[in-house]
Design a protein that fits this description.
By secondary structure, the protein is mainly β. The protein has no helices and 31 strands. The protein is elongated.
């Protein structure tokens, strides 16, 4: 039986090279025949790649993670834990989606960013740089979180809002419209801020 070491601490495990791309897939994982796993990409644990999803370059999908729809994971990006990436989503650079996070509906996660916990990123939102989205936070509707910004707790950043620098939005805070939250600003609890374009 063919084995491969995915370098996750479990040593060599039964695995095979996916016929579409040649990347290694653990026998415990599921990758559909129409999916693509590049020669340096890896899918292991009990991860699932289905529909038309593609895994390129040195990307990793592991644990119980699922990538579906037209999701693309590329560069050195990782999806792990019980995370779900679906629809027309792109996760790239050194980004990591893990925990029980959900990324969907044309969202982008890039740079060295992290999306984890029970966070949701969707509707064209973009997370990049060293940004962190975690807890039960939501980022949606073309919103942008970048730099060293953090969105966490049960906060929701939506619309065309931007959170960047060392700013943080947390608790039950809501930020929408065209607002910019930047530098060292900290929004928390039940604060709700909305700004609409004229």
């Amino acid at each position: 039986m063919t084995q491969f070491d995915f370098e996750d601490g479990d040593g060599p495990v039964p695995a095979h090279q996916h016929p579409n791309g040649g990347g290694w897939v653990a026998n415990t994982a599921h990758v559909g025949k129409f999916n693509f796993v590049g020669p340096d990409a890896r899918v292991f644990g009990k991860a699932s790649v289905c529909d038309m999803a593609r895994i390129y370059e040195c990307a990793r999908v592991s644990d119980y993670a699922k990538v579906s729809g037209h999701g693309i994971i590329t560069n050195n990006a990782k999806v792990s834990g019980h995370a779900r990436v679906t629809d027309f989503v792109l996760v790239f650079n050194n980004a990591h989606v893990f925990g029980r996070a959900r990324v969907s509906y044309q969202a982008l996660v890039s740079g060295d960013s992290r999306v984890c916990g029970h966070a949701r990123v969707f509707d064209g939102a973009h997370i990049h740089g060293n940004a962190r989205v975690y807890g039960g936070a939501w980022v949606s509707g073309k919103a942008l979180v970048h730099g060293n910004a953090q969105v966490y707790g049960r906060a929701w950043v939506h619309g065309k809002s931007t959170v960047f620098g060392n700013a943080s939005v947390c608790g039950n805070a809501r930020v929408g419209g065209n607002l910019e939250i930047y530098e060292d600003k900290h929004l928390y609890d039940d604060i709700g801020l909305l700004s609409f374009p004229f």
